[in-house]
Amino acid sequence: MYLGITPSVTCNNASRNEFSLILDKNPLAEFVEELPAGRSSLCYCNLLCGVIRGALEMVHLSADVSFLQDRLKGDRVTEIGITFLKKLDEKKYRRKK
Q1: Phi and psi at residue 74, in whole multiples of 5°?
Q2: Domain 8-27+43-88: homologous superfamily in CATH
Q3: At the N or C end, where does the chain have fewer CB atoms within 10 A?
Q4: pLDDT tens across 71-88, in order?
């Protein structure tokens, strides 16, 4: 919503605890022409994974979030994989009155 894009959501896992967000257009990569020489392992848009993981933790869900495909590395689309790990204990995060 804040980036002005709407990802497609795919879920191919039978246990329904994994899904992917497919970004046809990645606004963070719009102004990057190519990765610097010797830095091919750099994941320029890894910031998105941290934002998604942090947002899920705010609603008490622990998840593993990582890039599966990246247009900057020659893939057709940008794909972010999300795996649900567990529901966090809400009591730990409540304020004491």
Answers
A1: 95, 0
A2: Trafficking protein particle complex subunit 3 (3.30.1380.20)
A3: C
A4: 877 788 889 999 999 887
Split at pLDDT 50, 70, 90, the class of 54 is very high
Q: Quote the CA–CA distance of 66 and 58 in Å, as a whole number.
A: 18
Give every CB contact of residue 71 below 8 A, 6+ residues apart in sequence. 26, 29, 77, 78
Q: Whole-angstrom Cα distance, residue 91 to residue 75?
A: 42
Q: In what order do the strands lie in the sheet with 8-10?
A: 8-10, 18-23, 78-87, 61-69
What is the residue extent of each domain of the chain?
A: 8-27+43-88
Which whole-number Å values give the CA distances from 65 to 61, 85, 91, in the listed order?
A: 12, 10, 24
E-assigned strand segments in the chain: 8-10, 18-23, 61-69, 78-87
